[in-house]
Each structure stands twice: as C-alpha cells, then as structure tokens.
Amino acid sequence: ECLQTFQQSIEFLGPDDKACYYIAACNEIKGNHAVALDHYKQTLIFDPACLLTMEGIRRMEAELALQSVL
Is the pTM of this model over 0.85? Predict the structure, then answer.
C-alpha cells in the first residue's frame, strides 16, 4: 500500500529524494533487494549526502552479495 502511494507521487509530481527513498525502503522490506538498490541509487541523485540512503545502498549490496553466494 505504501509503495503504491509513493509510485503515484512520482507519476503525478515527478521523482524526488523522499519518494525514491521510501520506494526503496518499501522494496527492501518486501525483500526486493535489487529494486531497492536501484531506488536508493536514484535517491542519491537528488540528495548525494544522505547518510540513510548510503546505508541503504550498503545493506542492499551486502544482501545481494550474500544471495549470490548462496
């Protein structure tokens, strides 16, 4: 439900740091780590200094690396 809200926000208003971040977070919670990583990276375009976004990227990269080993 939250994912749809932020996707609609991007459709109507265009992408911004908060919508991209929350789409990433929603996908992370759902276990869609590759999609979450893409959206966290998009967030950095709008706010390159966001520490929460950088931490999200590190988590997703670590999760994807772990999945590739298993």
Answer: yes
CA-nearest of 1, 13, 64, 69 to 36 is 64
DSSP of 9-58:
HHHHH---HHHHHHHHHHHHHHT-HHHHHHHHHHHHHH-TT-HHHHHHHH
Residue in 12, 14, 34, 10 with CA at minimum distance from that of residue 24 = 34
φ and ψ at residue 57, rounded to 5 degrees: -60, -45
Query: 17 and 47 in contact (C-beta within 8 Å)?
Result: yes
Dist CA 65 CA 42 (whole Å): 20
pLDDT, tens digit (0-9, with 9 covering 90-100), for 11-58: 999 999 999 999 999 999 999 999 999 999 999 999 999 999 999 999
